[in-house]
Write a structure and sequence with these properties.
This protein is 29% helix and 32% strand. With 79 residues, it is an alpha+beta fold. It has a single domain, classed as TusA-like domain (Translation Initiation Factor IF3, 2-Layer Sandwich). A four-stranded mixed β-sheet has the order 1-2-4-3, covered by helices on one side. A hairpin with a 2-residue loop joins β3 and β4. The longest helix has 12 residues. It is globular. It starts with 8 loop residues before the first strand and ends with a strand.
Length: 79
């Protein structure tokens, strides 16, 4: 696995269920400046759908997603 995606902040949402990963992502994105990237890791299998929906709703693009074992990793850019 190559970790070539740069990020400015990391958020660990492992072992949290919906809606906590989305809520915590929203809070963390609010602390970034436009253009910065948040790396969020979740073990909630529903987070793929939840994060895509949140991204579409808020306009903060998901630059990259990865699945490593049971972890879903999202790189989200603040718009």
């Amino acid at each position: 696995m190559s970790d070539d995606q740069k990020f400015d902040m990391e958020l660990d949402c492992k072992n949290l269920s919906c809606p906590l990963p989305v809520l915590k992502t929203k809070q963390a994105i609010g602390k970034l400046t436009p253009g910065q990237v948040l790396k969020m890791t979740s073990t909630d299998p529903g987070s793929n759908k939840d994060m895509a929906s949140w991204s579409n709703r808020t306009g903060n693009p998901i630059l990259k997603t990865e699945v490593v074992g049971n972890e879903h990793i999202f790189y989200i850019q603040r718009k």
